[in-house]
Amino acid sequence: MSIFSKIVAGEIPSYKIAEDERYYAFLDISPLTKGHTLVIPKKEVDYIFDLSDDDLAGLQLFAKRIAIAIKKAIPCVKVGQCVIGLEVRHTHIHLVPMQTEDDIRFNKPHLELTPEEFTEIANRIKAQL
What we know:
This protein is an alpha+beta fold. The protein contains three helices and five strands, in the order H-E-E-E-H-E-E-H.
Protein backbone atom coordinates (compact mmCIF):
# COMPACT_ATOMS: atom_id res chain seq x y z
CA MET A 1 0.00 0.00 0.00
CA SER A 2 1.48 3.37 -1.03
CA ILE A 3 1.78 6.34 1.30
CA PHE A 4 -0.98 8.00 -0.74
CA SER A 5 -3.32 5.03 -0.25
CA LYS A 6 -2.64 5.32 3.49
CA ILE A 7 -3.57 9.02 3.31
CA VAL A 8 -6.83 8.18 1.50
CA ALA A 9 -7.56 5.49 4.13
CA GLY A 10 -6.99 8.02 6.94
CA GLU A 11 -3.98 6.11 8.30
CA ILE A 12 -1.71 9.10 7.65
CA PRO A 13 -3.00 12.66 8.17
CA SER A 14 -3.10 15.16 5.32
CA TYR A 15 -4.16 18.72 4.65
CA LYS A 16 -7.14 17.68 2.56
CA ILE A 17 -8.46 20.08 -0.05
CA ALA A 18 -11.24 17.95 -1.55
CA GLU A 19 -12.33 14.42 -2.32
CA ASP A 20 -15.07 12.54 -4.06
CA GLU A 21 -15.70 8.82 -4.50
CA ARG A 22 -12.78 8.45 -6.97
CA TYR A 23 -10.23 11.22 -6.33
CA TYR A 24 -8.46 13.02 -3.48
CA ALA A 25 -6.56 16.33 -3.33
CA PHE A 26 -4.26 17.43 -0.51
CA LEU A 27 -1.40 19.84 0.10
CA ASP A 28 2.10 18.60 -0.65
CA ILE A 29 3.98 18.55 2.68
CA SER A 30 7.21 19.52 0.90
CA PRO A 31 5.83 22.27 -1.34
CA LEU A 32 7.59 24.18 -4.09
CA THR A 33 5.26 27.15 -3.46
CA LYS A 34 2.42 27.88 -1.07
CA GLY A 35 -0.64 26.04 -2.33
CA HIS A 36 1.29 23.19 -4.01
CA THR A 37 -1.33 20.44 -4.12
CA LEU A 38 -1.31 16.77 -5.07
CA VAL A 39 -4.29 15.21 -6.85
CA ILE A 40 -4.58 11.43 -6.88
CA PRO A 41 -6.99 8.70 -7.86
CA LYS A 42 -8.10 6.75 -4.80
CA LYS A 43 -7.43 3.57 -6.74
CA GLU A 44 -3.72 2.82 -6.49
CA VAL A 45 -2.24 2.78 -9.99
CA ASP A 46 1.48 3.45 -10.43
CA TYR A 47 1.62 4.97 -13.92
CA ILE A 48 -0.83 7.66 -14.97
CA PHE A 49 -1.19 6.24 -18.48
CA ASP A 50 -2.20 2.86 -17.04
CA LEU A 51 -5.42 4.49 -15.81
CA SER A 52 -8.52 3.72 -17.83
CA ASP A 53 -9.58 6.50 -20.20
CA ASP A 54 -12.52 7.24 -17.91
CA ASP A 55 -10.31 7.43 -14.78
CA LEU A 56 -7.69 9.59 -16.53
CA ALA A 57 -10.34 12.01 -17.82
CA GLY A 58 -11.99 12.11 -14.40
CA LEU A 59 -8.65 12.78 -12.68
CA GLN A 60 -7.91 15.67 -15.03
CA LEU A 61 -11.38 17.17 -14.54
CA PHE A 62 -11.05 16.85 -10.76
CA ALA A 63 -7.58 18.48 -10.96
CA LYS A 64 -9.02 21.31 -13.06
CA ARG A 65 -11.59 22.07 -10.35
CA ILE A 66 -8.83 22.15 -7.72
CA ALA A 67 -6.52 24.29 -9.91
CA ILE A 68 -9.28 26.87 -10.40
CA ALA A 69 -9.76 27.08 -6.62
CA ILE A 70 -5.98 27.37 -6.06
CA LYS A 71 -5.74 30.24 -8.56
CA LYS A 72 -8.52 32.10 -6.72
CA ALA A 73 -6.97 31.47 -3.29
CA ILE A 74 -3.24 31.91 -3.94
CA PRO A 75 -1.89 34.94 -5.81
CA CYS A 76 -0.22 33.52 -8.93
CA VAL A 77 0.01 33.98 -12.69
CA LYS A 78 -0.99 30.37 -13.41
CA VAL A 79 -1.26 27.01 -11.74
CA GLY A 80 1.22 24.66 -13.35
CA GLN A 81 0.63 20.94 -13.68
CA CYS A 82 3.33 18.30 -13.55
CA VAL A 83 3.30 14.51 -13.48
CA ILE A 84 6.57 12.88 -12.52
CA GLY A 85 5.55 9.78 -10.61
CA LEU A 86 8.92 8.26 -9.74
CA GLU A 87 9.10 9.11 -6.04
CA VAL A 88 5.76 7.48 -5.05
CA ARG A 89 4.36 4.52 -6.97
CA HIS A 90 0.84 5.96 -7.03
CA THR A 91 -0.37 8.22 -9.84
CA HIS A 92 -0.36 11.87 -8.78
CA ILE A 93 -0.60 15.27 -10.37
CA HIS A 94 1.29 18.21 -8.89
CA LEU A 95 -0.61 21.51 -9.07
CA VAL A 96 1.81 24.35 -8.36
CA PRO A 97 0.90 28.05 -8.14
CA MET A 98 3.46 29.86 -10.31
CA GLN A 99 4.73 33.39 -10.74
CA THR A 100 7.48 32.14 -13.09
CA GLU A 101 8.44 28.80 -14.62
CA ASP A 102 11.19 28.56 -12.00
CA ASP A 103 8.46 27.94 -9.40
CA ILE A 104 7.85 24.46 -10.79
CA ARG A 105 11.49 23.40 -10.77
CA PHE A 106 11.63 20.36 -8.49
CA ASN A 107 15.37 20.47 -7.81
CA LYS A 108 15.17 23.82 -6.02
CA PRO A 109 14.80 24.03 -2.21
CA HIS A 110 11.28 23.27 -1.04
CA LEU A 111 9.39 25.36 1.50
CA GLU A 112 9.11 24.45 5.15
CA LEU A 113 5.74 25.53 6.50
CA THR A 114 4.20 25.27 9.95
CA PRO A 115 1.07 23.21 10.57
CA GLU A 116 -0.78 26.49 11.04
CA GLU A 117 0.39 27.74 7.63
CA PHE A 118 -0.68 24.49 5.95
CA THR A 119 -4.10 24.67 7.62
CA GLU A 120 -4.58 28.30 6.61
CA ILE A 121 -3.63 27.59 2.98
CA ALA A 122 -5.88 24.52 2.82
CA ASN A 123 -8.79 26.52 4.22
CA ARG A 124 -8.25 29.33 1.68
CA ILE A 125 -8.33 26.86 -1.21
CA LYS A 126 -11.33 24.93 0.14
CA ALA A 127 -13.24 28.18 0.50
CA GLN A 128 -12.96 28.66 -3.28
CA LEU A 129 -14.46 25.28 -4.21
